Amino acid sequence: MLETKLKAFLPLLIQHLFLYHYLSSLLPISMACNNKFTLDSVRDALIREEDSIVFSLIERARFPYNAPAYDPSFLGNGFSIAEFYVRGTESLQAKIGRYQKPEDVPFFPKDLPSPLPPTKYSQKVLLHPASASVTVNEAIWKFYFTELLPLFTTKGNDGNYASTVASDFVCLQAISRRIHSGKYVAEVKFTDAPQDYSPAISSKDRDKLMDLLTFVAVEEAVKKRVEKKARLFSQNVTLDENDSGKTQYKINPLVVSHLYDKWVMPLTKVVEVEYLLLRLS
Amino acid sequence: MLETKLKAFLPLLIQHLFLYHYLSSLLPISMACNNKFTLDSVRDALIREEDSIVFSLIERARFPYNAPAYDPSFLGNGFSIAEFYVRGTESLQAKIGRYQKPEDVPFFPKDLPSPLPPTKYSQKVLLHPASASVTVNEAIWKFYFTELLPLFTTKGNDGNYASTVASDFVCLQAISRRIHSGKYVAEVKFTDAPQDYSPAISSKDRDKLMDLLTFVAVEEAVKKRVEKKARLFSQNVTLDENDSGKTQYKINPLVVSHLYDKWVMPLTKVVEVEYLLLRLS
């Protein structure tokens, strides 16, 4: 009986060991500690990404909403300034080797140029086929511009469109990187308990997978931590030690916990589910 | 006697009033409070820029030094990855209207494209001829890559060259913007006391101007404040309230005060001096 069960898991185990080794080689240093790819190391990378997201939002908040930057008729070439800039920069970054890691997903993947030779990096690291196809960037683009941006920028137009959309792109990339790191989260969770996930994967049960991937207490802690980071990083720092109670925050800390609650964590789980559904293919 | 003196200052006064009005129209909102262009408002903008510089350094420190990104032979097209990326992004940003404000100075100004029509911003805001020619970007490029970068990045090579040079560019732009805001500093200082600066300007006495622009106590306070910001912003934030004493900083706070002491403040004063030398032309 036990032997039968073990035999049933053997192909899974071999595949797992292969993928484990493969994915470890792709991991950023912060995730791959001593070549170990663990939930702790992935979690540390996600926590570090929170700082990047908070910094990027604070930097975007230097400028008002600047509606003309998002008007598709403004440049006269069919693109908004934002889309024109993101497309151009993604093309440039692809040429120098970006978009080859599972968490770096372009917003406009069509017609991206190949890396210029010789990029050692691009030869060493290839996208895993299953993880490469998972993207929620369309959803990120939409919520960022239509829902999030008005929450943390002031109304108005100061004409600084180039700086504005460059800041938008940094926000989009940081948020996208965090959300698509869900591929690593899914991989380590699956690795730790394949028996928990395999039935739901086989039956393509998205709801069941979503349940398995949801930990309310962890999510509450994340929301509290990002709000704390927003408070610390967006305060006006002075040399007066008694000044900290009077600070005006550059962004509302509650907007950051809302961002995580409404979009970042749910979309991360969508990425995890979609990755898992491809995991046994 | 008094009348003669007043007459001598009259052309200066007229020029000043013109420039005052002109420069106010160029100022970012944070500097131009109620259309008033004062030392306080310029100082507030410089203090805000400190946060941007600290954030950008923390973000760059996510990656090790990554020497191949700076090797001019790596891409095979004559440029290092860093230079290729900065040139490409500056070109893209120029197309959408950047580099038209006195503090936004490109690192590679030759052959920058014109803004795509119709950009309302570019029609409204033109560079002031005297301030546009003042640039210390060559010095910034040099100290950043050869001296600063090794101080706050770890040794090593993780292959993330595209993300690395994108982060470098954010650092370079923030540092350059802060330093070239010296043009505003010089303008308000001159405006407040033209009689103090005019003799040294007329005799092209750079040393005297540098003396007039140096306030040791202010510089010491700036160094302390940026170090404090680096400590606050680069700490590892946890929900454990008793954890703050044990934090590991993502960048050494002393590197940031050193950056200001050795490069940012001296080069800002070089910009101020060069601007003043053109101020009466």
Number of helices of chain A: 12
Largest sheet of chain A, in brief, is: 2 strands, antiparallel
Overall geometry of chain A comes to globular
Strand order of the largest sheet of chain A: 1-2
Biggest interface, chains and residues, is: A-B, 57 and 57 residues
What's the number of extended β-strand segments of chain A?
Answer: 2
How far apart, in Å, are the first and last alpha carbons of chain A?
Answer: 26 Å
Q: Helices and strands of chain A: which structural class?
A: mainly alpha
Residues in helices of chain A, as a percent range: 55-70%
The topology string of helices and strands of chain A comes to HEEHHHHHHHHHHH
The averaged pLDDT of chain A comes out at: 86
Radius of gyration of chain A: 21 Å
- Assembly context of the chains: homodimer
Which ranges of chain A are low-confidence, i.e. pLDDT below 50, for 5 or more consecutive residues?
10-36, 121-127
Strand content of chain A: under 5%
